[in-house]
Amino acid sequence: MGNMMKGSRVFMLLLVIIMVVLSMEEGVKLAKAAGPSAAQCKEERRLGINACKPVVYGKLPTPECCERVRVTHIECVCTVVTPKLAALIDVNRAIRLVEGCGRRVPRHFKCGSITTP
């Protein structure tokens, strides 16, 4: 059962990461002069995971989850999206969830190992 819980945590982290990545508007510039620190990025990811846990279990995003999707910096998530993590995500479901939060999902947006359709 330990491996199942670990797998669920990885899936949850990936789902939240993908939701955040897909929520960014087209034309976002990744190279900002004063981006968030590593500690700030870690905190943003932690907040997003906690706010969006119910999504992993098939529920719709809460207002708190949608807020996290809108405010998390893209540069905080792209570096952790590896091919192994990307393989576990249903990108089309993630897009529907993000759009449900009122955000447009850019076409052909690349972040880490994910490219939106």
TrEMBL record:
Residues annotated as domain Bifunctional inhibitor/plant lipid transfer protein/seed storage helical: 31-111
Assigned keywords, A-Z: Signal
Coiled-coil regions listed: none
Pfam families reported in the protein's UniProt record: LTP_2 (PF14368)
Signal sequence coordinates: 1-23
SUPFAM superfamilies membership: Bifunctional inhibitor/lipid-transfer protein/seed storage 2S albumin
Protein name (record): Bifunctional inhibitor/plant lipid transfer protein/seed storage helical domain-containing protein
Domain of life: Eukaryota
InterPro entries named among the record's database cross-references: Bifun_inhib/LTP/seed_sf (IPR036312), Bifunc_inhib/LTP/seed_store (IPR016140)
